[in-house]
Amino acid sequence: MEQKELICIGCPMGCALTITMDGGQIVEVSGNTCPKGKAYGEKEVTNPSRTITSTVRVLGGESPLVPVKTRTEIPKDKIFACMEVLHGIAVRAPVAAGDVLLEDVAGTGVPVVATRGVGKK
């Protein structure tokens, strides 16, 4: 049996979780004080993923940058590839909140969307 120790980020409590595994199968999640902790622990050891927030350059805009995020979570091992792609792109103003700025970031199939609008100069 293998045990993994995590701090849950599912709610503000920050519970210390212990995930017990046997041959890659989850046997038990303990230490959680709410159901979110169990779900977070199971997901984190089997398929860790994150929603990415960043900025993208804007050409001809009132602001040089627009805040963006991935529409859904991406695999944790794709974070650096995602950030590299976002660092290398620029979009033309105007940009509206909710605009899809990139259809498929780093081969994840997940779009990147603007979270705020940027008008033209």
How is this structure best summarized?
By secondary structure, this protein is an alpha+beta fold. Helix content is 17%, strand content 37%.
Describe the secondary-structure layout.
Blueprint (H helix, E strand, L loop, with lengths): L1 E6 L8 E7 L2 E6 L4 H12 L2 E2 L2 E7 L5 E6 L3 E2 L3 H9 L2 E3 L7 E3 L9 E3 L7
Characterization of this structure:
- With 121 residues, the protein is an alpha+beta fold.
- The protein contains two helices and ten strands, in the order βββαββββαβββ.
- The protein has a five-stranded mixed β-sheet. A three-stranded antiparallel β-sheet has the order 1-2-3, covered by helices on one side. Strands 4-7 form a two-stranded antiparallel sheet.
- A hairpin with a 2-residue loop joins strand 2 and strand 3.
- The longest helix is centred in the middle third of the chain and has 12 residues, at 35-46.
- It is elongated.
- The protein starts with a strand and ends in a 7-residue tail after the last strand.
- The mean pLDDT is 96.
Helix content: 10-25%
* Strand tally: 10
Structural class: alpha+beta
How are the strands of the largest sheet arranged?
A: 8-5-6-10-9
Counting H and I runs of at least 4 residues, what is the number of helices? 2
C-alpha-based Rg, rounded: 19 Å
Question: Which strand-content bin applies to the residues?
Answer: 35-45%
- Secondary-structure element order, as H and E? EEEHEEEEHEEE
Determine the N-to-C terminus distance: 61 Å
User: Are there runs of 5+ residues with pLDDT below 50, and where?
Assistant: none
Mean pLDDT: 96
User: What oligomeric state is this?
Assistant: single chain
Sheet bearing the most strands, described? Answer: 5 strands, mixed
Shape verdict: elongated
